[in-house]
Amino acid sequence: MIAFLAWLVHMDVLVEASFFCMIKGHEYSWLDQSFSALIKGLKPYAVYTVTSLLQHMAMLLRSYTVVECREVHCFWNFKDWLGLHLHTIRGYATSQYGDGMHEFLFCKDSNGEVRVLSRKSSQASQWAPEGDGYKIFKNTPPSSPEFAPFKSDAQRERQTVASTVHLWLPHFT
Questions:
Q1: What residues contact residue 24 under an 8 Å CB cut-off, 6+ apart?
Q2: Is the dihedral of CA 5, 8, 10, 12 positive or negative?
Q3: Which of 93, 101, 125, 148 satisfies CB 3.0 to 4.6 Å to 75 for a cystine?
Q4: Percentages (nearest 5) of helix, strand, coil residues in the chain
Q5: At what angle do helices 29-42 and 50-61 cross, to 10 degrees?
Q6: Distance (Å, whole) CA 92 – CA 170
């Protein structure tokens, strides 16, 4: 996830990106609320296409500061592709007792290099390290990775997914 977010900033898809790690056993109520609002909000609509789903999602999640919903057309093999270009990223361990860093911010420095800053809490006033942050990429990654190999129906567990959809379908009517 760290590499993927850094790549999105590198490609100017995002101006900056951040994520927050919760202490084990805690939940993020804002995220839970947004999914709950999305599911409840979709119930009155007949959604037959991905385009329609994305439009409804954007409308329903606007109050959660979601600006845009996009369809992911394919999957990429980010791990193998970006691993060649990353500096080693370690030392951010977050234990169940709260040691380590919990919030991470990816942004570009004045030279256009993607950097990461972190802090122990969203309430902390200082980001570490001082200055621009740690450089993420050793060298510039190519513009896009190779597609991940297609999986067979058995590998994707198609029957399990279909069964799950059929079980949940009555709850959406």
A1: 95, 96
A2: negative
A3: 148
A4: 35, 15, 50
A5: 130
A6: 43
Asked if residues 98 and 23 have their Cβ atoms less than 8 Å apart, the reply is yes
Cα-based distances in Å from 114 to 5, 16, 23, 56, 157:
10, 9, 27, 33, 37
What is the SS3 assignment for 59? helix
Closest CA to 2 of 12, 17, 13: 17
Longest dimension (CA), the chain: 54
Burial 6-43 (b: 16+ CB within 10 A, else e): bbbbbeeeeeebeeeeeeeeeeeeeeeebeeeeeeeee
Residues found in the chain: 173
Q: Tell me the three state secondary structure of residue 126.
A: coil
For the beta carbon of residue 162, count every other beta carbon within 10 angstroms. 11
Distance from C-alpha of 102 to C-alpha of 113, rounded to nearest angstrom: 23
pLDDT digits (tens, 9 = 90+) for 87-146: 877 666 655 555 677 788 999 999 999 999 988 877 888 888 888 888 999 988 777 776
Whole-angstrom CA distances from 40 to 35, 37, 43, 45, 62 are: 9, 5, 6, 10, 15
Please say whether the beta carbons of 16 and 105 come within 8 A. yes
